[in-house]
Structure formats: C-alpha cells, structure tokens
Design brief:
heterodimer, A: about 100 residues, mainly alpha, 2 strands, B: about 650 residues, Sodium/glucose cotransporter, 6-stranded antiparallel beta sheet, 23 helices, globular
C-alpha cells in the first residue's frame, strides 16, 4: 500500500545532512553532561550536597541540565535556520544564473 | 483525609468539559479524511504544536506524581523531572526532523518507511499498543482518584467520565480536537503552576504553617517516658493507659511503637529512645471486617491531619520568613530542619495498621538525592540500587523520543522545520514546568498540606491552602491533564489498530472514509478497554507503570528508530528482531522484578529473580545488539543494498518514500 508523508515539502539533501550532523554532535555533548550527572550520583553522591551559595550542586546541576537543553535547542535552531537560509540563497542564485545562461 | 466537593470545582470542571466538547464539535468536519483524522491534516502551527506537546507529555504522573514524590522525599522526585526533560534532547537533535520526513500518521509508518515489511508493521503496532496501555492505566486510575476530591463522586465514576469524554474527543475529530485540548491544557497547566509558585514565594515559610489561616497548625505532642523494660513501658501522663507494643527491625535499627488509650480512643506513639519520649504518630487501621479508621476515628471525624513543616528556620523556632525569591527559597530550606514522615505497616490477627511516624531531617539532606534511590554505601546502597538508578535515568533519557503518542504529534505539523521548532517550544514549556515541580513539591512539604494517605494530591492541596478557587482551578487542570494525555494515547492506539494493523498489515481494502470510520471504532474500543483497566487496577499502586512505559519504549522502539536513521546496514529482519527482543526482554525483566512481586503480585516476602526494578540498562543494549547482529546476517544482495542505501534517512524523505511501495 503506497503512501507518502502527510504533507509535501522540498528540502535540500545537503542541508539535511549538515543539520543531522550538527544534531548528533549536540546530542553527544548533552549526553556527556547528563552522564556526568549520573556518574557523580553513583560514585560520590555526597558531592551533590556541595554548597554553592544558597543552592547545592544537585540543584545547580539539575536546573543546569534543564537550562542547557533549552540553550542548546535555541542554538541548534539558529544554526539550522542559517543553513536553511543559505541553501535557499544558493538555490535562488543558481536559478538566476541558469536563467541568465539561457538568455 | 476527607475530601469534600466544592461548587467552584464542579463549575470550573463543567466549563472545561463544555469547552472540550465544543472543540471536538468544531473540528469534527476536519476529520473526514485519514490525514485529517490521524494527523490533523498536517496543518497545525508549530507554536500550537509545541504547547500541545507539553499538554500531551505532562501527564498526571508529572503533575501529581512528581510533585507528590518531591513533597515526601525531596530531590529524588526531581530526578524524574530531569530525566523526562533530558529525553527531549534526543527527540530534538536526533528524531524530530527525520521522523517527520519518514512517516505519515504513526510511529510504524516511520520505522517501516524504508522496508515496507509486514513483520515491522505488526511488531511496531504491537509495541505501540503495549506502551500505550502501560501509560493509559495510571492515567485512568489517576482520573478516578481525582474525581473524588473534585466532584465527590466514586472512583469508577471518574474513570467513566474521563473515558467517555476522551472517546468523544477522539472519535469526533481525532488528532485535530486532541491537539487543541492538549494545547489548552498545556497552557493552563504552565500558567497556573507558575501562579501557584509565585503565591508560594509571597507567603514565605513558617514553622507552624496554618494554610493562610484556614487550617490551624497541629502541634504534634510528646509524652515523657518514665521507664522501659523488655515487656512494658511506663509514661508520665496518667490520662493514658498503655496497650500493645511492637518492636520492628528496620534498616539495621529497631523501631518501637506503643498503643495508648485515652477516653476510649486509641492512638499509636513512636518511642524515641534518645530523648526518652513518645512521639505522636498518624495511623490508618484497616480491620479484617472492612472498616477503616483514621487516627482512631472514622473519615468523617477528620482526625487525620495534613502534615509537613519546617521544624526550625536557621536554628530558630518558632519562626517565619518574609517573601522569598527563587534562590532564597532553597537557601532557607538548606539551613533548616524539616519534619518528614516515614511509613511502617504493622499487622496482627484482626487489623493492619499503617503508621506514619516523624522523621526530622536536615534541609540540606532533602535537597540532594538519596532518600528513594540509595546511592550512598553508608545509607544502604548496593550494586543493585545503583544499577536501578542508572537504569531509570537511561529509560527516561531514551524513552521520550520513542513514545508513540509523542511521535505522532510530528505528523500534525506541515514540515520538518515546523517539527523542529515545535520541539523547541515543547522543551521551553516542559522545562519551565519541571523547574516549577521542585518548588511546588518542596512547597507542599513545608506548608502543612500533605495527605500522607495520598501524596499524589500534594500539588492540588498546596493550591487549596491558597483558597478554594485556586484549588478548584488546579484540580480541574489536573483532570484536564488526564484528558489531554489519554486523548493522545488513544489516538496513537487507534492509529496502530486501524492504520497499521487493519490497513497496512492485514491489507483490508478501505476507502479513505472507511479508514476514518475504522479509526473512530478503534478509538471507542481502546477507550472502553482503558475504562475497564482503570476500574480493575483501582487499588493497585500503578504510578510506576509510566516509568515502565518509558523503559519498554526505550528498549523496543528507540534502537530501531536510531539505527534506521544512522546505520545503512540496518535490515527489516534486524528491525523486527530488535523490536521483538526489546519488547520481550523489557517486559520479562519487569514481570520478574522485586517491585512487581511486591506491588503487583502482592508477595513481598518472596525474593524475585531480578533485583533491579527498571529493565532499561539491560534491555536497551540488548535490543541494539540484536539489531546489529541480525542485520549483519541478513544483508541484502548488492543491487538491493544500493537501492536501500540511497534511501537513507539523512536524505530528505518524500521522494525516496514514494518510490518504495
């Protein structure tokens, strides 16, 4: 039974690959920070009680993981947006040039 | 404690239900095609979809369960918040755009896009149904538990109300109405949780919290002990007569309780050996004849107090603070001692007594992990408790991006770019909410609002301490929370039955209208099954089923999704084997775990074969391994291989997908 996606769109293959690669790197970076949180809890749980002003390491790290997710998400979106725009510009230029060539 | 329905709660609830039903009616004509019914026509704006993601994801387990867990155990409950949010990173960076490119209506579409394989269709659909049912049961049971305090109706009525409303939502307009119900619920939940935390800051802390003057603070009594022998205990207060005594070995120490009687009213006290005093407890007595007493009285006598307070503030008692801010809130708790409560069950021939006894704890201890998950050797940590913790964090991290009811939201937006943007909105909304859970949970812990017999009610009861209207709104939102999540789950299940199994696996020839009709019938059947399960599991502690749903999703679905996206040698047989092994191994480990023995089979004295409660640490790597091995042994011949390699997911999907079926 043949079916395609629910909606149709066009996207450059190279742009998709670049975005996927950046996504993987950012995923790897976040996974490392998340793993450090788990490792500290398992290896030296008392370190989580370390005083950090009015807070402790557990809260700073916990909130930090949440804020880091949002910050990385915004950076990722900005980078992807840049790649998509650049691709669009190149496509337009290419179209323009091919149009001029035809003349 | 006794809950009484408020008129405001009923009015707000009825308004909410009316709005939800109107939305379903309004969008009903959008759901006449498969695309409209299963994917809301793919026309939802990314910002709306992002908030709807929040509404879909922030289930009763998040709002009621996490706040309740933090209220009684501190930071350990917040570990769930961290893990649940971190999972969205996998969704954003790895899954969002490719899944949108590959799929059409369901999770099965995406994993099967490269292969058009009947085995994948069946196993992915079965996995969707199992994960959704694991998730559905606690939602339905939660609905039943909420309806009693909110509307004064019995548990089964709550389940039937939620089930019926959700069936109307899904059967009339499918994903379109579900999306807007989730959007409204997500926005309300975020807005009012924020309002609750701000009012909490403005109230500040007190060592004798009285819920804004509405409920007098109960000062728990102590009685001086005069002498103690092996057999008896003598006390200074002659008004009490001494009854039965219990000595219980717990965590290497001894707990000692004594029953006292005054004016024919029994009470249970804990013996504090260090201070040579008896401390008042709270207790629930279940008699074999079916009667239940709360602190020696019936539930109507309201003798079972709400608890939770700071014992001192920076060494001073009595004391109170002024308005707090997000940092000083933690600063005060860190420098204070908190009165927590521990639980012990005592049984004899005619009764089972659940005793809640005082457990003063330094605030600094509450703000770090270790009260639920034993990680410190000095506090009883073992290799199994540590593995359990790691396993839970793995399940939460990898489970989110593999939950079918979350993945289907990617098909409601017009493009992969919109899918990405909506995930970012979801991360912002969900992240904000999870930060608020720590404030709401600790606020409940220190504001004298906890009902020890039902810690899931901590957040709504915290709201009630600010007035009945606030409570009514928060309770109605909690109810809406169940509606939004259950709608999403039933949509996912309906798609798995009607689209994946009936249409694509069995190959029943259907027109587009018939397909929509099948989806609607499937949603009614799944809704009825959910109602039955919600009533059958009423008395079971089912909150951990959500954690298991994450573990099963992470084991069965995520390895297949990731490997299809990023390993060109992945074969259909590898995917089928991976989903099957992930599903079976995760379920087997769960069914053989100690927690299941204790809480599902009710045989706590039998040692289970599996000593960790969360399977992800074994089942996720196993699923990956099986996929790799089976794929390597079932590589297609070169021509076919070249064709499939050309369809790798990192390439934009539409053209490739259309080629293959």
């Amino acid at each position: 039974m043949s079916h395609g996606p629910a909606t149709e769109w066009k996207e450059d293959e190279k742009a998709s690959r670049s975005k996927a690669k950046i996504g993987l790197w950012m995923f790897a970076g976040y996974t490392i920070v998340y793993s450090i949180f788990i490792v500290i809890n398992v290896v030296n749980p008392n370190l989580m009680g370390l005083n950090m002003g009015m807070l402790n390491l557990a809260i700073v790290f916990g909130f930090g993981l949440i804020f880091l997710a949002l910050i990385l998400a915004l950076i990722y979106n900005a980078v992807c947006g840049y790649i998509e725009e650049k691709t669009l510009r190149i496509e337009k230029l290419a179209k323009k040039h091919s149009g001029e060539g035809a003349k | 404690m006794k809950y009484t329905a408020s008129v405001w709660a009923i009015i707000i609830f009825v308004i909410f239900v009316a709005v939800v039903l109107y939305i379903s009616y309004y969008f009903a004509n959008r759901a006449k095609t498969s695309s409209g019914y299963f994917a809301a026509g793919g026309r939802i704006h990314w910002a709306v979809n992002g908030i709807a993601f929040s509404g879909d994801y922030l289930s009763a387990a998040s709002f009621l369960g996490i706040c309740g867990m933090i209220a009684v155990a501190g930071f350990d409950g917040f570990l769930y918040s961290i893990g649940y949010l971190a999972g969205w990173i996998v969704a954003l960076f790895v899954v969002a755009e490719p899944i949108k490119r590959l799929g059409k209506y369901t999770f099965t579409d995406a994993v099967d896009a490269k292969y058009n394989n009947r085995g994948i269709k069946l196993m992915a659909a079965v996995s969707t149904l199992i994960v959704s049912v694991f998730y559905l049961i606690p939602q339905m049971v939660g609905a039943g538990s909420l309806v009693t305090p909110l509307l004064g109706l019995p548990h089964w009525a709550g389940v039937l109300i939620v089930g019926s409303i959700v069936i109307v939502i899904v059967a009339t307009a499918g994903m379109a109405s579900t999306t807007y119900v989730q959007f409204i619920k997500g926005a309300l939940l975020l807005g009012f949780s924020l309002a609750l935390v701000i009012t909490l800051f403005s109230r500040g802390f007190s060592t004798s919290p009285d819920q804004g003057g509405n409920v007098p603070y109960h000062d728990f009594k102590t009685i001086q002990v005069q002498s103690v022998t092996e057999e008896s205990i003598a006390i200074a207060d002659g008004a009490y007569s001494v009854g039965q005594q219990w000595k219980i070995n717990k965590n290497g120490g001894e707990l000692s309780f004594v029953e006292l009687s005054k004016n024919n009213v029994d009470s249970i006290w804990k013996y504090n050996k260090d201070k040579s005093i008896l401390e008042e407890t709270l207790f629930v007595t279940n008699f074999t004849d079916g009667r239940t007493l709360y602190n020696g009285g019936t539930i109507d006598e309201e003798k079972f107090y709400q608890v939770g307070n700071l014992l001192d503030i920076d060494g001073k008692s009595p004391a109170k603070t002024g308005t707090l801010d997000p940092l000083s809130f933690f600063g005060v708790i860190k420098k204070s001692d908190v009165l927590l409560w521990s639980k012990q069950i005592i049984s004899d021939d005619s009764r089972s007594i659940t005793v809640y006894y005082q457990n003063p704890t330094a605030g600094s201890e509450i703000l770090k992990p270790g009260r639920i998950y034993k990680l410190d050797t000095l506090k009883g940590a073992t290799i199994f408790t540590r593995l359990d913790f790691i396993s839970l964090m793995i399940a939460l991290f990898f489970g989110t991006a593999a939950l079918p009811h979350i993945l289907i939201r990617y098909y409601t937006v017009p493009s992969p770019i919109a899918a990405r943007k909506s995930t970012i909105v979801a991360i912002a909304g969900i992240g904000l909410f999870y930060i608020l859970t720590l404030y709401m949970g600790l606020g409940a812990m220190t504001n004298g609002v906890i009902d020890l017999t039902n810690d899931n009610m901590s957040a709504p009861l915290l709201a009630r301490s600010f007035g009945i209207i606030f409570f009514s709104i928060i309770s109605a939102i909690a109810f809406a929370t169940v509606l939004g999540t259950v709608s999403g789950l039933i949509c996912a299940s309906s798609g798995a039955v009607a689209h994946d199994i009936m249409d694509r696996f069995i190959g029943i020839k259907m027109t587009d209208r018939k397909k929509v009709f099948s989806g609607k019938i499937a949603s009614i059947v799944v809704g009825v099954i959910a109602m039955i399960l919600g009533i059958v599991f009423k008395n079971m502690n089912v909150s951990y089923l959500v954690g298991w749903a994450f573990a099963v999703a992470a084991s069965a679905n995520l390895p297949a999704i990731l490997m299809i996206l990023f390993w060109k040698k992945t074969t259909a047989k590898g995917v089928v084997a991976s989903i099957s092994v992930g599903l079976v191994s995760a379920l087997a480990l769960i069914l053989l775990s100690q927690k299941t023995f204790n809480e599902v089979y009710n045989i706590p004295n039998v040692i289970a074969p599996i000593q960790i409660n969360n399977p992800a640490i074994f089942s996720v790597p196993l699923s990956f391994l099986v996929l790799i091995i089976v794929s390597l042994f079932t590589q297609p011949k070169k021509a076919a291989e070249a064709e499939i390699a050309g369809m790798a997911v990192s390439q934009p999907g539409p053209v490739a997908i259309e080629e293959k079926e």
